[in-house]
Amino acid sequence: MQVASRRSVRAPRPASVAGVAGTDPASVRTWDRLAGSYGRQERREQHAVDTALRLADPGPRDTLVDLATGTGLVLRRLAARPAQAVGVDRSAAMLAHVGPLSDDTRLLRADARDVPLPDGHADVVTISYLLHLLSPADRAAVLAEARRLLRPDPASRLVTVTVWTGRAPPARLAGRVLAAAAAARPAALGGLRPLDPTADLRAAGLHVDRRVELPRRGYPSLVLRARLPAGRTPDLRTP
Ligand SMILES: C[S@@+](CC[C@H](N)C(=O)[O-])C[C@H]1O[C@@H](n2cnc3c(N)ncnc32)[C@H](O)[C@@H]1O
């Protein structure tokens, strides 16, 4: 397994989310600290990740980029092997826990807001359990980067997984409880803040064509598949 770390030629973007060291649920420090125990909860993500991969449906000629790959659950759950897969994460400790991968899969230590891969590199981009950790500005930056990475073809697809409790009244109450707990302990529970990123995807110029809500079997989750609009050559640099 190969871990590459490349400095971007672009200027670094400002630090995000809560801004207070140690309370940012997306910070490198948070995930370096959680890396050793992260594998113990992966079974709660597995059903949603498998659903995401079913919707993503990577083929043997496809290139897949998994943004915020963490300990590599998405890469390890790939049933059909794409031609190439790249797992991107900015926490070296999380990447160190990925474990064995196939030869056509590599890891890249980089920020998902500024990925050192060329425009149109991927047929499939996956983002599993990241977006709900981020501020709206950082969500927009990550989704703009995901869009830039997608090959400019309506068949290319982005699949996201977020924590989501649903819109029905009991689910909304559960969501509010979860959001309050996440706000009280952002570094530990910030990842459990429910989010439906449909509006973020739309703002990034992507349209959602599949939506699967998974209230049971693991974290209550939402899986969305989004595509570039048909019949239009996208300007990859402008969301
Ligand atoms: C909740 S874990 C999800 C890991 C994996 N995708 C999964 O589903 O198990 C969140 C991951 O996002 C990474 N992360 C947070 N902000 C990031 C960013 N701006 N760029 C790259 N990775 C980031 C963290 O290092 C962590 O590994």
UniProtKB/TrEMBL annotation:
Low complexity bias spans: 1-18
Source organism superkingdom: Bacteria
Pfam families with a match to the protein in the record: Methyltransf_25
Annotated SUPFAM superfamilies: S-adenosyl-L-methionine-dependent methyltransferases
Name assigned to this protein: Methyltransferase domain-containing protein
Domain called Methyltransferase: residue spans: 65-153
Region span, Disordered: 1-23
InterPro entries from the UniProt entry: Methyltransf_25, SAM-dependent_MTases_sf
